[in-house]
Write a structure and sequence with these properties.
A hairpin with a 6-residue loop joins strand 3 and strand 4. The chain is 54% helix and 12% strand. The chain is elongated, with a radius of gyration of 22 Å. The chain is mainly α. Its main location: membrane. InterPro entries: PqiA-like (IPR007498), PqiA-PqiB_transport (IPR051800).
Length: 204
């Protein structure tokens, strides 16, 4: 049985389970923290779909535009995410190249694909159990922080290596789009109500 069927409601602020029997849960106040409690997040699916599609559209220029430009007295160069990975690999920095590739390319794709899957699974029949879908969502939240690795690296390098006219490291337009992709994906996962997974009947 779901919480709605048991006449209870969960406060998302303090995680208190509230007895909602004899009263509608719309506008119900949590007796512990005073927050407004709703049976499900309002417009959760619409918001998550909109944010996920936006993140996917932002992810395209994030990988096509340079994320970092290096300007020296004699030359200048700019690299995309994959271009930077290739350059690190050519310079035999295999571990760093692997970390950047996984954190900045594989992880965002995994997050977007997983959210799309969870949204689609609410409408069509799939093989995963509700417990597995819930664990998948929590995995998305855990690995989400590593998606910003490229931005951290650019920021640190710009602060440490910048030496005036000798060498300058600047973030490119790709870094802006990449940061926007990560933030939008985080908002998408935040807006998704996992309780909707358990509202789907016939799967335990």
């Amino acid at each position: 049985m779901t919480d709605i069927e048991m006449n209870t409601a969960l406060c998302l602020s303090c995680r208190q389970l509230i007895d909602a029997s004899g009263a509608g849960t719309e506008g119900l106040r949590c007796p512990v923290c005073g927050s407004t409690v709703h049976p499900r997040r309002k417009n959760s699916l619409q918001k998550t779909w909109a944010l996920t599609i936006t993140a996917l559209l932002l992810y395209i220029p994030a990988n096509m535009l340079p994320v970092m430009s290096i300007e020296t007295f004699a030359d200048s160069s700019a690299n995309t995410i994959l271009g930077g990975v290739i350059e690190l690999f050519e310079n035999k920095m295999y571990f760093i190249a692997a970390v950047v590739f996984v954190a900045s390319f594989i992880v965002p794709l995994f997050k977007l694909g997983s959210i799309f899957y969870l949204l689609t699974a609410l409408r069509v029949k799939d093989r995963l159990t509700n417990s597995a879908k819930t664990r998948l969502f929590h995995l998305i939240e855990v690995i989400g922080k590593w998606s910003m690795l490229d931005i951290y690296v650019i920021t640190i390098m710009a602060g440490l290596v910048n030496m005036g006219f000798l060498i300058q490291i600047k973030g490119g337009a790709g870094a802006t789009f990449f940061a926007a992709t990560v933030i939008t994906t985080m908002l998408a996962s935040k807006s998704f109500d996992t309780r909707l997974i358990w509202d789907k009947k016939g799967e335990q």
